[in-house]
Amino acid sequence: MTENHNLFVALRQSWPDDLDRTAVEVVDGPGAGLRYSWRDLDRASAMVANLLESLELPARSRIAVQAEKSVESLILYLATLRAGHVYLPLNTAYQSAEIAYFIGDAEPAVVVCSPGNHGWVSRIAFSGKTRHVFTLGDSRSGSLLERAAHHSDRHVPAVCRADDLAVIIYTSGTTGRSKGAMLSHGNMLSNARVLRTYWDWQPDDVLIHALPMFHVHGLFVAIHGALINGSPMLWLNRFDPATVVSLLPRGTVFMGVPTLYVRMLEDPRLTREQAARMRLFISGSAPLLIETFRDWQQRTGHTILERYGMSETVMLTSNPCLPDPRHGGAAERRGGTVGFPLPGVELRVVDDQGQAVPTGEIGGIQVRGPNVFQGYWQMPGKTAQEFTADGFFRTGDVGRVDAQGYVTIVGRSKDLIISGGYNVYPAEVEGFINDLPGVAESAVVGVPHPDFGEVGVAVVIARPGARLEPGRVIGELRARLANFKIPKRCFVVSELPRNTMGKVQKNLLREQYKGLFA
After folding, report:
1. I need a labelling partner for 89 at 20 to 30 A (CA). Which of 32, 114, 358, 450 fits?
2. Which pTM was predicted?
3. For the ranges 40-54, 260-274, 279-293, which has the lowest average pLDDT?
């Protein structure tokens, strides 16, 4: 008999024997107070899977979803896996031109959208190869659920191989054409199993889920973590710092981007007593400022665990949750680093010629492991370009590994500034700026310059009540950094442009300031 590597089957096997226990409790929005049992997730995903099968779709059809976060959207994800099709999550902020590109590129057989967007989304979908468009609202409404209600709540999961495609997740597309990273059932299951062990998931863990569902962090790290451990979730359709702080006595695990931690630190109710029951706080998707790391320690008594991953690889490294025997029993969660390569992940740092750099030196990060994606959808040339001859994926990230094995991300290779022939790593300069009195956060980008080819520009946010003088910021750096690393200009602004996961959009800053020295 053929072994079934369907990710849904593996997740389902981890659910509690008592399926009537609560799996998800909705905390906010139209369904606030609703509780979904494990049996509800099983039955509802079976009904939606049967609906998909009734459409007689080709094998491994893409199911594109741009819908608001809800438990029903989670059920749709499980149903897609269950039916053996390919899930394609789309950011709810995408507009018509972006949706047209994704639908044109992925050619989904089914598109699911919010009821309010049905008019324009269906026009785009039907102009291509899509034949079925359903709606799904965040209040248990929409044509998808109406149609699924007529189908059986029993379903035999499709048989999948480990390398069968399960998900296409489009990269953010901040430079050039957005690419569809193809993740298999085996990619995601291997990562979920490793994280369950490495993050020491416990039988009584409760996840506070406040992240969006169209991104690796919220869907493949947080949700998979809870499901493969049979752990209930306290479900927020939208992040609200006050609500999360109030939930801390009921939860044990929280995953967030740095912005969420900054906003919760503004709540005076965030104390050691309030967070006493919590076991683990995890941060990712964007760099965590060392100040936020220390403030959280002081306020809550907890040390945030920072980790590193990508759309193409799910999680790659993590600070230790427990002592890591591979690194001499190191257990310190070290601020400013992303910890050690996860078990099964090979990570190396190389120079421009692909040669390994000495310990502690900066270079390009390459990785290999069972979690690394199969390639980019319909882009074989780009896929081949991003892999080395011995099978390592070129992440595009720049970093270093110290003598103890801790990995530090210095930045993206595309963010590297080459000024007068010297390499300038923005993250290094930002670290010095962020340490200056009155500075809340900074971003350094490279812009064209007639003499040096490229120079740095610093864009800085002041702390509340502080006055920052751009000239003084640059002056302070002169005593700390080599002259070629000093930004030529500094601007003090009220906010930095960010994407939905809190990452600073440096491409927008480069565009904004590109004419400074023209």
Report:
1. 32
2. 0.87
3. 279-293
pLDDT in tens, 172-200: 644 457 899 999 999 999 999 999 999 99
Q: Residue 2 — very low, low, confident or very high, per pLDDT cuts 50/70/90?
A: confident
Nearest to 448 by CA among 410, 483, 426, 417: 417
Q: Give pairs for 139-142: CB < 8 Å, separation 24+.
A: 139/29, 139/30, 139/31, 139/70, 140/30, 140/31, 140/70, 140/72, 141/115, 142/72, 142/115
Distance set, CA 127 to CA 112, 122, 124, 150, 178 (Å): 15, 8, 5, 28, 21
Task: Give the helix/strand (H/E) hosting 242.
Answer: helix 241-247
The alpha carbon of 227 is separated from its chain's Cα centroid by a whole number of angstroms, namely 18
Bridge partners of 448, per DSSP, are 454
Q: What is the mean pLDDT of the chain?
A: 94
Q: Which residues pair with 282 in a beta bridge?
A: 255, 305
Place of tokens 């939606």: 48
Tell me the mean pLDDT in the region 54-61: 97
Q: 462-490 pLDDT, tens per residue? A: 999 999 999 999 999 988 887 888 999 99
Q: Which residue in 353, 513, 506, 368 sits closest to 425, CA to CA?
A: 506
Residue 112 and residue 137 in contact, taking contact as beta carbons nearer than 8 Å: no
DSSP 358: P
Rg from Cα positions in the chain: 23
pLDDT band per the 50, 70, 90 thresholds, residue 33? very high
The CB density around residue 96, as the number of other CB atoms within 10 Å, is: 12
Element (H, E) at 63: strand 62-66
How do the residues of the chain divide into helix, strand and coil, expressed in percent and rounded to 5?
30, 25, 45
- Amino acid 358 reads P
Joined tokens for residue 510: 């480069």
Choose among 405, 386, 461, 398: nearest CA to 424: 398
Phi and psi angles of residue 162, each rounded to the nearest 5 degrees, phi first:
-60, -30
Kindly state the average pLDDT of the residues 113-141: 95
For position 419, what pLDDT does the model report? 85
Range with lowest mean pLDDT among 72-86, 190-204, 229-243, 448-462: 448-462
Taken as a whole, the chain contains a residue count of 518
Beta bridge partners of 305: 282
Structure tokens at 341: 């390569």
For 346, half-sphere exposure in the C-beta direction (CA atoms, 13 angstrom radius) is 8
What secondary structure does DSSP assign to 438-497, as a single string? TEEEEEEEEEEETTTEEEEEEEEEEPTT----HHHHHHHHHTTS-GGGS-SEEEEES---
Cα 391–Cα 396–Cα 398 angle in degrees, nearest 5: 110
pLDDT at 364 over 50: yes
